[in-house]
Amino acid sequence: NAGVTQTPKFQVLKTGQSMTLQCAQDMNHNSMYWYRQDPGMGLRLIYYSASEGTTDKGEVPNGYNVSRLNKREFSLRLESAAPSQTSVYFCASSEKGTAGGHYGYTFGSGTRLTVV
Amino acid sequence: QQQVKQSPQSLIVQKGGISIINCAYENTAFDYFPWYQQFPGKGPALLIAIRPDVSEKKEGRFTISFNKSAKQFSLHIMDSQPGDSATYFCAATYFSGTYKYIFGTGTRLKVLA
Question: Do residues B13 and B76 touch, judged by C-beta distance below 8 A?
Fold first, then answer.
């Protein structure tokens, strides 16, 4: 099915370990995003990539790095995981409409990460 | 100024009733107001959206009411069904190189059969 694919779906890390969350979209969207979702706090933007070759910090970037590998793929890396990074991580993509409008985000199904 | 305040945090409605979720914002630069629906274990999915130049948008049982002067918008779910039980997020967005969203904190809706 067309859309945004995230891997892995679940992960348990020990404090200090590193890992990379993978995201790929097949809708030819220019923009991609990483969000984290925590109870009572909604979705908060970690990093985004407006187009291939660019990345920028969002609201909560500390402890994370990203790579826009190509137009399809946008990965999120935790260099030294901390318990505060226990969360559900969502990747999303979007495109500007031909008339300048916006069709909304398409989200992946998420990665549930637990850091112990 | 970048916040979107959403209420209530949770909502229980009888089948066939009307569910109403409210959001308020401060930043007048927002130019697109979507609502997302999220089922457990899934990512949010775009439900319905409105631009600030209209006061209401209806799609099936879902309606957005928008009050630009009050900087408020709400989602109404008519004839609520158990299948509508989900978490709903309002959002406000603006364009700055790309579309940036500010999400509300979510409303967990439960529709009783």
Answer: no
